[in-house]
TrEMBL record:
This is Unannotated protein. GO terms for molecular function: 2-succinyl-5-enolpyruvyl-6-hydroxy-3-cyclohexene-1-carboxylic-acid synthase activity; metal ion binding; thiamine pyrophosphate binding. Keywords: Magnesium, Manganese, Metal-binding, Thiamine pyrophosphate, Transferase. It comes from freshwater metagenome. Signal peptide: none annotated. InterPro entries: MenaQ_synth_MenD, THDP-binding, Thiamin_PyroP_enz_TPP-bd_dom, TPP_enzyme_TPP-bd. The keyword Magnesium applies. Residues 6-124 form the Thiamine pyrophosphate enzyme N-terminal TPP-binding domain. PANTHER family: 2-SUCCINYL-5-ENOLPYRUVYL-6-HYDROXY-3-CYCLOHEXENE-1-CARBOXYLATE SYNTHASE, PROTEIN PHYLLO, CHLOROPLASTIC. Residues 393-490 form the Thiamine pyrophosphate enzyme TPP-binding domain. One of its GO terms (biological process) is menaquinone biosynthetic process.
């Protein structure tokens, strides 16, 4: 047996025994010992083996499985540029607190800086996670602590062995329990609880238990996970007078709030701020607040704060938003209201995630995911495919540029039950709502219209697609059972019209709320 085969066997066996059950691999030569070992483990039904031809998409696919399973998922590539393609998903895993196990095959260390083919310095290529540089001389021992891990494996030739020993005999799987820390005591008076979309890595149930003890009004960036949260807060808090009227003495933020300036400004205006986020220990170490906690307290002493005033304001806002015309907001609201219970939902960055925060009425019953670690639009389709591996039904809402950014994922299309709704406004709609909307040459450098017939693009990959250009068409497609993978292209009004409508809506809500609470 070759030393490279022995190394691959030792590594894979340890990972399986530690409870790693999903492995994603892209084809290559230097990672052949791992590919062969994994195929043998898959033949014994010890693991689920996924093969993706594009390393960038493979890493986001692994990230999706990790999000859905809350377990380590290994993604494996050959040497050279292949390793560099793992960087975007690795950064997302670092900042999102996801359990991604990055394994890069490498040539022996003696070949580094010699001009050898497909050889670069892969040690420390992912600067924010530690690299374990492993050779055939290493007595390998893998420790999985809950953070992203990088293993760089030096394989000597010969890479292939004719040995047929049963190296998986007697394997004993003892999964590691990666539960969140729930400990400590917190004493507060009255205030408001703000829950970031990423939840700081805590589960909905863990936060629900904490919120029940706290007894404060809740603002959630992800209202479809928290049915008791205050709807439309990001809209009415954009009015300075309304924000001042509602301002409490204290605020607790769980995770990071990354979506709306209004909510962040509101948090900044409150006298006492408490942050609860495990990432403040190693990733966000400079986060500022009066008190920063790395775990949810299991003991809470507080003064119950009535939600009545908040709900009165929210009701006034809801009445003004009750008659939306055909728009991105109406489409997304309709989709979210009708997603079936016990399914997964993935929300793309840019406008969709913000429209859900602002316009969708709180509900529960679904598992919501998003790449909010660094909020990129890359790799979203691949992430959806990974999440769908762990659910019977998955719905995704993506913008058109987000969808096109990861269009290569369709070459390795999923066999899971997935429906992706693509909000098509022919370009970067979020920029029309930002200060650069008035910049010279806006369309070329920000609007970036794709001018593509997305139905034809999708059909070109052999994937069924339908188009909705009004609410009736959309609702009909929403109600169709999700069987296999299909895409719905939601054709909405122009980006300029959407920006203008949003501005008018916010003004109308402000007027209605001010009248409702006698601030007019």
């Amino acid at each position: 047996m070759s030393d490279s085969t022995k190394l691959a066997h030792s590594l894979i066996r340890q990972l399986i025994e530690s409870g790693v059950s999903d492995f994603v691999i892209s084809p290559g030569s230097r990672n052949a010992p791992l590919a062969i070992a994994l195929s043998e483990a898959a033949a014994k039904n010890l693991i689920d083996l996924h093969v993706k031809i594009d390393e960038r998409g493979a890493a986001f696919f692994a990230l999706g499985i990790s999000k859905a399973s809350n377990n380590y998922v290994a993604v494996i590539c050959t040497s050279g540029t292949a390793a560099a393609n793992f960087l975007p998903a690795t950064l997302e895993a670092v900042h999102g607190g996801n359990k991604l196990l990055v394994i890069t095959a490498d040539r022996p260390a003696r070949l580094r800086k010699t001009g050898a083919n497909q050889t670069t310095d892969q040690v420390g290529i992912f600067k924010q996670i530690k690299t374990h540089d492993i050779s055939t001389d290493t007595d390998i021992k893998v420790y999985l602590t809950g953070d992203p891990v990088h293993l760089n494996i030096q394989f000597e030739e010969p890479l292939i062995s004719s040995d047929k020993s049963d190296w998986l005999a007697g394997i004993r799987i003892t999964p590691i329990n990666f539960s969140n820390d729930i400990k400590g005591k917190l004493e507060v008076s009255t205030g408001v609880l703000v829950i970031g979309h990423d939840r700081g890595g805590f589960t909905k149930d863990e936060i629900d238990v904490f919120a029940a003890k706290l007894k404060w009004p809740i603002i959630a960036e992800d209202p479809i996970s928290f049915p008791n949260s205050i709807p439309h807060a990001s809209i009415f808090l954009s009015d300075q007078k309304i924000a001042e009227y509602l301002r409490p003495d204290q605020v607790i933020s769980i995770g990071r709030t990354t979506l709306s300036r209004s909510v962040n400004s509101f948090i900044s205006s409150i006298k006492k701020s408490i942050v609860i986020d495990p990432r403040t220990k190693n990733v966000d170490i400079s986060r500022e607040a009066d008190l920063v906690l790395g775990s949810l307290p299991d003991e809470v002493k507080s003064i119950e704060t009535s939600s009545e005033t908040w709900l009165t304001v929210a009701d006034s806002a809801a009445k003004e938003l009750g008659n939306l015309t055909w728009s991105e907001q109406q489409a997304i609201t309709s989709i979210c209201d009708q997603i079936v219970d016990k399914s997964a939902v993935f929300i793309g960055s840019s406008r969709p995630v913000r429209d859900i925060e602002a316009f969708v009425h709180p509900r529960g019953g679904v598992e919501v995911f998003a790449n909010r670690g660094l909020a990129g639009i890359d790799g979203n389709i691949s992430t959806v495919f990974g999440i769908a591996e762990k659910f019977d039904s998955t719905t995704a809402i993506l913008g058109d540029l987000t969808f096109l950014h990861d269009i290569s994922a369709l070459t390795n299309s999923s066999k899971s039950n997935i429906r992706i709704f693509v909000i098509d406004n022919n370009g970067g709609g979020i920029f029309s709502t930002l200060p650069q909307s008035n910049a010279d040459n806006f369309e070329q450098v920000f609007g970036t219209p794709h001018n593509l017939d997305l139905i034809k693009v999708i059909n070109g990959f052999g994937i069924p697609a339908a188009k909705a250009s009004n609410l009736d068409q959309l609702n009909k497609l929403i109600l169709e059972p999700i069987k296999g993978f299909n895409v719905v292209v939601v054709s909405v009004p122009s980006r300029e019209e959407n920006a203008s409508n949003l501005k008018e809506l916010i003004q109308r809500v402000s007027r209605a709320v001010r009248i409702g609470i006698n601030l007019a």
